[in-house]
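Anyone able to model this chain together with 2-acetamido-2-deoxy-beta-D-glucopyranose?
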Amino acid sequence: MDWLVFLTVALGFDIVATKPTTSYDYYRLPTSLRPEKYHLRVLTHLDNPNELTFSGSVKILIDALRNTKNITLHSLNLRIDETQITLKQISGIKKDNCISSTAVNPVHNYYILNTCQELVAGNVYELSMPFAADLNRQMEGYYRSSYKDPVTNLTRWLSVTQFEPASARSAFPCFDEPELKSKFIITLGYHKKYTALSNMPVKETKPHESLKDYIWTEFEESLPISTYLVAYSVNDFSHKTSTQPGGPLLRTWARSNAIDQCDYAAEFGPKVLQHFEEFFGVKFPLPKVDQIAVPDFDEGAMENWGLITYREISLLYSENHSSLEAKEKLAEVVAHEMAHQWFGNMVTMKWWTDLWLKEGFATYLASLGVAKIHPEWNILDREMINNIFLTFGLDALESSHPISRPIKLISDIAESFDAISYKKGGAVLRMMHLFLGEEAFRFGVKQYIQLNSYRNAEQDNLWQSLSKAAHQFGALAKDYDIKTIMDSWTLQTGYPVVHITRNYSARIAKVSQERFFLNPKVSPVHRKKCWWVPLSYTSQDKRDFNSTAPMAWMECTNKGASLPKTISNLPQSDQWVIFNIQLSSFYKANYDAQNWKLLIKTLTEGDFESIHVINRAQLVDDVLHFARTGMQSYEVALELVSYLKREREYLPWNAAILSLQHLGRLLRGTPHVKLFKRLMRKLLTPLYQHLGGIDGNSQSTQNQDQILLKAIIIHWACQYDASDCVAKSLAHFRRWKSETYPDEKNPIPINIRASVYCAAIKNGTKEDWQFLWTRFLKSNVASEQGIILIALGCSQDAKLLQRYLELIFDPAEVIRKQDSGLSFASVVSGEVGMPLGMKYFMDNVERIFQLYNPSVGNMGTILIACSVITDRRQYNEFKAFVKKSRRFFKGLEQTIGQTMEAILMNVQWMEQSSKQLSRFLVKYT
Ligand SMILES: *[C@@H]1O[C@H](CO)[C@@H](O)[C@H](O)[C@H]1NC(C)=O
Ligand SMILES: *[C@@H]1O[C@H](CO)[C@@H](O)[C@H](O)[C@H]1NC(C)=O
Ligand SMILES: *[C@@H]1O[C@H](CO)[C@@H](O)[C@H](O)[C@H]1NC(C)=O
Ligand SMILES: *[C@@H]1O[C@H](CO)[C@@H](O)[C@H](O)[C@H]1NC(C)=O
Ligand SMILES: *[C@@H]1O[C@H](CO)[C@@H](O)[C@H](O)[C@H]1NC(C)=O
Ligand SMILES: *[C@@H]1O[C@H](CO)[C@@H](O)[C@H](O)[C@H]1NC(C)=O
Ligand SMILES: [Zn+2]
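re: yes, here you go
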């Protein structure tokens, strides 16, 4: 699954909750039974908007592995007519059995059928059950979605599934665990004006036996798959068929008036599918794959085998409305889901504990795949390095968690779909790729896929394959094994800062490690942790930034203590060293004062481009974080950052902006903000001018990095009022407003629209806001709607913002529920919006909870957005509010922990470090 906000989960109660509850309370199903095949029939009613429902029956063939007197499976919110349940033995002597009683366990959504006669090991049984429910509005299970037909102005309804991680149980009774793979024969009934899609191709279509104009479509039998990968949809969409000789049939589906936005995905899809066939050395096993853009979709996308579902923004691309950034993101998501067809679908994790394995891999392999198909985008470094910086921030909290962790409740699974699983997972896999080298990495991954196809595996299975490959290719010393190394990264929370202390006369360096925390108050004992760190480095005289192969390792004892390490043969005392070439490993590097001085000298006065661009970004990110935690002074940090006046590349700038934007927010409303703004203008203006300002029109000759660089520089130049950024943005916006058909013709260059809209709205009138809101309502392109929703939150007008907050949480969903969390985040990130948004949230938390319940993803986004609080009084108020409102934040315990800690870090910093910063700001402005 691709995670956009994060995952939602049902914690509701069965309709049958009045039944006796059972004593069986273990979080995994009993192991005496195993499903072999499901015959699933579902009839979907989309005609009456007041009665969007489904009903059906499931016939499950079950192998008895041990004798048992009950069948325990999952069912949630389904109406089940128990008089219609049948059970019989179908192997050996065919015999009728029956159900004597039923019970439920609402915590784990178990539905227990006690059998009249014991089920005997070695036999096969057939259980049939009817079920029915409403198509829900919460974007999970089997749910409804809708869109407005632009010609008739009527609402069109469709149905679609979202089962991961644990919602198949709310669509039909099933053994809803990833390890219980089974074959599926799915048959869908629906009005014949619709199309039905499922994992497999259509086998045959027949008229419904009684309902007029209804048909039954039966799909081919599937391969063994996990329940969370089952999918189906009934819709009236159009499609584009991709052509790729020899490959599977690939179709891209969308509502008819968006079908012209399918071209890019239809062209890119087969290319990336073919790439992964070669990468894994296993052909795509299904005859077809469909990708479908669903108007209401809570995640980024979902990799259901053979029927991949997407949010519109993740699949639809409009040449005239979507930015390059949106296009790249789309390619990443498509590649991510395609990678899952092997890593996840063909080889599946045994249990949700190893969720990170499929998600980390899909994240990393997606970047490799896109880089292969679009080498001109230079996406690999950009994506991976930005992921690393983002995770460095999150994972420096005490409330962070390991990539791999025990899962017992389905609400824990939901919180696992976070940046740590995806982005840190991807980052440590990249690290492994870089220390193993190309051959060993590829060979090991191939082996793992081939050995475990159609089965379930754990991370240790992967480590075994990789260790073997590593030793075979000589990529790792014989006495090292991947499991020991990687366990230190996947089972431990956090990551190290490596301290490099040089002895200049002896030309050696002492290297030590400790866990990095944002909170300077964490005691040294808690910092004493050990990771197996591959060390790569270069020096001013060598400047060899090409090889990321480790030149040494930091090792750990069996007890997890770090062994001291000395590096020798370092250069003379007037030459710097840099560790962690191309940020190939997941750690921060801190140096002694002299080495920082040497680095700063080269950056500010010397040949700064002789330092690899990724390492320039690393130095900026590291030093600003060290200053934030007091490990370095702001004097060193600002001196280093002042080199940005010379920098013309995307990565170092993006690193700087990620950190400085946070500083800027902290300083808002303090006396230091003026100086800070001056500093930002001083840094940004040379590059703004170098890029030709807003109207600089050398885009055709620019590469992708430069286009994206320009977008972020304009955004921040306008934020800090540099040069003519705001005036030019307003002029652009006015030109757009004066167009007769603004929805057809938008003169603002696509890639800077997000920045221009925001600047214009920030400095604009009520009428400007209304104009943009109208464009939102009329837009047919999800990515354009996305940037408009963010821009509307840039306003500084309290009245407009208040109105916007009402619209965001309006149950009429003019703004779709899936987009509300991000719209809210935009409001509270602004100076005027922050107090308004916080108050609105605290006053309306119950209503907002009702809007999303039982899904928790958007509530999580809202909580995270609240980390903008910076003063102690507001912190205390928010803390009291959270405590009082616990019941609205069920399943979000971890998010709350992270949010409260992030806020506390802001507060502490304001109280303790802001003065130090301002002292040095004077010097650099
Ligand atoms: C159902 O049977 C399994 C053993 O096959 C047993 O572990 C479990 O406790 C039983 N469930 C109930 C509710 O009795
Ligand atoms: C479409 O329907 C809405 C109400 O659902 C109405 O307000 C609007 O005027 C209609 N538009 C057209 C073009 O008919
Ligand atoms: C994009 O805009 C150009 C120029 O306005 C127009 O000619 C073209 O048809 C548009 N493309 C699409 C797909 O709408
Ligand atoms: C540096 O190394 C030399 C030679 O080994 C030693 O004499 C000196 O004390 C060391 N300096 C420091 C500061 O550790
Ligand atoms: C590093 O790689 C680049 C590009 O592949 C090459 O131009 C350069 O000479 C290499 N540098 C060293 C020191 O090997
Ligand atoms: C932005 O708005 C402020 C206050 O309304 C105004 O003083 C300033 O001139 C505006 N900037 C531009 C470039 O119009
Ligand atoms: Zn995924």
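The pocket of 2-acetamido-2-deoxy-beta-D-glucopyranose (ligand 3) is lined by residues 260, 319-320 (CB under 6 Å).
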